[in-house]
Amino acid sequence: MAAALAASPMIDTNLEVDKLTYEIFSILETKFLFGAYDDPKLFLSGKSNNSPAPPVKNHHRRGGVAGKVRILSVDGGGTTDGILAGVSLAHLEERLRSKSGDPDARVADFFDVAAGSGAGGILASLLFTRGKDGRPIMKADEALQFLIKNRRKLMTTCNSGGFFRRIFRPETSSEKLFRRAFGEATLKDTLKPVLIPCYDLATRAPFVFSRADALETDGYDFAMRQVCAATMADPTVAGAAEMRSVDKRTRIVAVDGGVAMNNPTAAAITHVLNNKQEFPFCDSVEDLLVVSLGNGESASAAARRADPTMSPAAGFLKIAGEGASDMVDQAVSMAFGEMMQNNYVRIQASGFMMNNLNARDHVEMAEEMLKQRNVESVLFRGKKIVEKTNLDKLEIFAGELVKEQERRKSSILPVVVLKQASPRTSSATLSTVSFC
To answer: Which residues contact 401 (CB under 8 A, 6 or more apart)?
Structure first.
């Protein structure tokens, strides 16, 4: 899913984001609510189809045979700088180990796709990039500690600056941090499909780093350290992060993924529904299990009081990103409708700020957030406060993920047929035994 949206001046970034949001929501509406439009030409053209929507398809029989595609989506940093999502993932991984009986189970074992923006992109990268032993380079609790320990460093990425500065400047602390974590790993080295957004100033459009694209051509394959730098680049603090693809043909001048897509859940869902090569039997939300992790909400005044150094521009970007996240959650909730209780879970919290806290306080605050009962969208009924806490929802959904894992062991048809690539080449093949 490479960036391919129309260009507009940098000052009109919000227009590009609005266009992207509109296109995603249009697909969600036609594909989910009405069970229509399987014609790929519709999505490629971006044109609406004015013909009456055909009857909703019954996918229950096929879903029962082929199973469900499991999607993990992690928001940008929010008011917790990614700590809430990190704690949620640590809890989820612990429950997956307990319920599966596998003490070495990882989050990546139980998901087929991972999407993350900003700090969420870093978490997704750490949990889904292959290490030297063939397993993810970090466990969920290790990724959480990575965020906590390096929180301040991660808030600053390189400024593109002038020509000579780009050539001769030393690596920033965050760049060194990403290099130590990921080494020379690229998007091709991720264990499962990943989607990590940024906003590209070179093309003046959103850009999504995608494993699927990287396996098609080196022109879309980027080093994971660059991917993380791109999705974390704060334009109000350190400017843009400039980088090139593995083959040096594609140039990106990136700023924060939250500018383009703070909540990447809808993008991940539409990627799966339209990627028939890797997800051949996935046609509707009935064929999905989706976990969407938020990172806290805030009002502008509260944010400024907690962080007096925050510039008006930074405050605006944070508020806009969080508002877009809520819109995506509401749209996805409406799309799932009555199936939301079993197929979609959103973990989010409010009322807490994490400025000037030590590591232990960070975790304790996030733990309190997970004890909250949150507001949830209900199809045609507005919103309501749910009965279950965030922890309750994680516990239940961990069980659903393990059930799907067990069901695949006796499945006739593969749910996922992942693209695979030979090391350091751009030739992609299909793995017909990718059941997890």
So the answer is: 70, 96, 110, 111, 289, 291
DSSP codes, 255-291? E-HHHHHSS-HHHHHHHHHH-TTT-TT--SGGGEEEE
Secondary structure (H, E, C), 325-345: HHHHHHHHHHHHHHHHHHHEE
Pairing of strands 69-74, 288-293: parallel
Tens of pLDDT along 384-402? 677 889 999 999 999 999 9
Tokens of 431: 């793995």
Give CA angle at 194 (120, 247), nearest 5°: 110
**CA nearest neighbour of 138 among 285, 408, 150:** 150
Whole-structure pTM value: 0.78
What mean pLDDT comes out for the span 27-35? 49
Res. 3: pLDDT tops 50: no
- Non-local (6+) Cβ contacts of 357 within 8 A are 365
For the annotated catalytic residues, the residue numbers are 117
Cβ contact 231:194 at 8 Å: no
Q: How many residues are given for the chain? A: 436
